[in-house]
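Project outcomes to date are best conveyed with an example. Our students and postdoctoral researchers have been running inverse folding experiments weekly, and each run begins with a structure described purely in C-alpha cells. The record below, which covers 331 residues, was selected by the lab manager from last quarter's runs and is presented without edits.
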C-alpha cells in the first residue's frame, strides 16, 4: 500500500491507499470508483551534490566568460554575474514565466561556456590565469554557508511575514505575487533578492528555508568580493596571509556591526547596504572604463529592484558620483 503522512494538519494522521494486483478500486465519498488511485508528482527533492552543481554552474560559467573577455579576476565579476541572473529572472517574472527565466539563464550559461573555451583558446589563456585568492575565499565561505545555513529556519518577523513567503510563492506559482490567492502580505515590495533565492530553491526541488538563507548570504558575499581585488597570488606568504585575513574580517564583520541580524535573517536592508558599498568601491577603485560603467549600472539596477527605497539611495549615490566627476574635471 501507499502511505501519505499528513505533517502540517491540525492533528497527526495518515492516509493509507491499498494497492496490488487484487485491488478492485478505491472509494471516493463512500462509493467504489472501480479504478485505481492516480498521482501527479509535482516536486522532487534533488541531492545536495546536484543542487551544488546546479546553482554554481551559471555563476561560474558566466563569471568565467567575463574574466576571459575583460581580463578580470573572479572577485571583480562575480557580483555582476549575480545581478545579471537576477535581472534575467525579473524580466521573465514580469510575464509570469519564472521557469522560462531559469531556462534562459542555463541556456545562456552553456552558450557562454562554449564561447569562453573558444576565446581562451584564441587568446591562449591558461586555466591557472583564472585562479585568484578571491576565488578560493569565495569557495571556502560558500561551503561554510552551505553547512551553517542548510538547516536554518526563518525566525525574524519580516522574514516570516514577507521575505520567506515571497520565495515560497514564486516556487509554487511560477510568478510574482500578482496572482489570485497569493500568500504574500506585501506584494508591492520589489522582489529582486527573492528572485535569486528562488533560483537556489528551485534547483533544490523542494522549498527549504535553509536554502533561502544560503542564497541570501551568497548574494551578500558576491557583492563584498570586490574587497579581495588587491589580493594577488604571487606575494610573500606573511603579507598574503595578513591581507587575506584582513579582507575576510572586513567582509564578515563590517555588515554584522551595522546589521547584527544579518547572519540569521534575510531582510534586504543589509543587502542594499552592501550593494551601495559595491557601487562606491567600483567607482573609486578605478577609472570609468566601459566595463566599470556596466557593473556600476548593474549595481544601480539591483539597488532599485531590491526595495523601493533603493530609488532614494540610488539618487544619493548618483549625486555623489556626479559631484565627484564635476570636481575632478574642475581640478
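After processing, the design step wrote out the following sequence:
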Amino acid at each position: 500500500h501507499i502511505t501519505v503522512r499528513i505533517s502540517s494538519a491540525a492533528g497527526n494522521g495518515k492516509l493509507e491507499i491499498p494497492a496490488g494486483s487484487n485491488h478492485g478500486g478505491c472509494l471516493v465519498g463512500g462509493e467504489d470508483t472501480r479504478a485505481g488511485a492516480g498521482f501527479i508528482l509535482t516536486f522532487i527533492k534533488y541531492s545536495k551534490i546536484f543542487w551544488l552543481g546546479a546553482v554554481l554552474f551559471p555563476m561560474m560559467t558566466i563569471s568565467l566568460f567575463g574574466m576571459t573577455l575583460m581580463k578580470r579576476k573572479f572577485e571583480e565579476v562575480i557580483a555582476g554575474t549575480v545581478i545579471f541572473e537576477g535581472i534575467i529572472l525579473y524580466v521573465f517574472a514580469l510575464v509570469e514565466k519564472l521557469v522560462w527565466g531559469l531556462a534562459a539563464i542555463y541556456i545562456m550559461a552553456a552558450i557562454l561556456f562554449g564561447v569562453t573555451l573558444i576565446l581562451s583558446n584564441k587568446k591562449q589563456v591558461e586555466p591557472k590565469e583564472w585562479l585568484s585568492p578571491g576565488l578560493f575565499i569565495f569557495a571556502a565561505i560558500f561551503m561554510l554557508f552551505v553547512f551553517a545555513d542548510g538547516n536554518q529556519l526563518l525566525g525574524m518577523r519580516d522574514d516570516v511575514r514577507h521575505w520567506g513567503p515571497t520565495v515560497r510563492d514564486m516556487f509554487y506559482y511560477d510568478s510574482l505575487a500578482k496572482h489570485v490567492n497569493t500568500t504574500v502580505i506585501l506584494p508591492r515590495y520589489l522582489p529582486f533578492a527573492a528572485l535569486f533565492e528562488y533560483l537556489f530553491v528551485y534547483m533544490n526541488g523542494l522549498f527549504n528555508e535553509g536554502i533561502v538563507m544560503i542564497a541570501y548570504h551568497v548574494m551578500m558575499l558576491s557583492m563584498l568580493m570586490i574587497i579581495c581585488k588587491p589580493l594577488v597570488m604571487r606575494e610573500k606568504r606573511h603579507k598574503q596571509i595578513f591581507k587575506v585575513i584582513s579582507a575576510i574580517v572586513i567582509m564578515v564583520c563590517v555588515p554584522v556591526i551595522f546589521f547584527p541580524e544579518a547572519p540569521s535573517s534575510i531582510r534586504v536592508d543589509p543587502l542594499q547596504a552592501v550593494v551601495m558599498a559595491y557601487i562606491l568601491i567600483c567607482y573609486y577603485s578605478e577609472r570609468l572604463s566601459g566595463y566599470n560603467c556596466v557593473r556600476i549600472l548593474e549595481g544601480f539596477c539591483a539597488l532599485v529592484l531590491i526595495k523601493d527605497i533603493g530609488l532614494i539611495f540610488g539618487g544619493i549615490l548618483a549625486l555623489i558620483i556626479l559631484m565627484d566627476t564635476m570636481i575632478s574635471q574642475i581640478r
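The two ends are 82 Å apart (CA to CA). The CA atoms of residues 5 and 11 lie 11 Å apart. The training component of this project remains on track.
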